[in-house]
Amino acid sequence: VIELSDLESDHINATTCCTRLNRWLLPETLAQLMTTILLLLSFEWLFLIFTLPMTIFLIRRGHLGYYDPAEIYNRGLLKSYIRESMAKMAYYLIGFFVFLFSMIMALVQSSNVENSAVPT
């Protein structure tokens, strides 16, 4: 988001911006794919349903040369890239809190089970 905002306000050139953004596409896709596979293997269906749409989106989008410096200013692509980045950021933020809440609930439940098993 910051890179695209800097490009929009002409603080950096299009080639530098697109190079920096394209560098992160493959690691983002691989991390999302790995998360989806781990959720599938652990039979966490609710979380799998939550992560599957983003995984499909990232795989269908591709990862090599998605941001093109020659085309980024044409047809409003810059605004659509900014909207896409904001939507992904909101998705990952919501996902972070959902997973964090789930982890805390699992810890609390395991703590309650251990406390109830100990005779007093």
On the 0 to 100 scale, the average pLDDT is 83
Secondary-structure content class: mainly alpha
Provide the low-confidence segments as ranges.
Answer: none
Spell out the helices and strands N to C.
Answer: HHHHH
Q: N- to C-terminal separation?
A: 55 Å
The amount of helix comes to: over 70%
Main sheet record? none
Summed up:
This protein has 120 residues and is mostly helical.
Folded structure, characterized:
The protein is 77% helix and 0% strand. The longest helix is centred in the C-terminal third of the chain and has 41 residues. It contains five helices and no strands. With 120 residues, it is mainly α.
Task: Give the topology.
Blueprint: H1 2-8, H2 14-23, H3 25-41, H4 45-61, H5 77-117
Helix pairs in contact: 1-2, 3-4, 4-5
List keywords for this structure.
single chain, 120 residues, mainly alpha, 5 helices
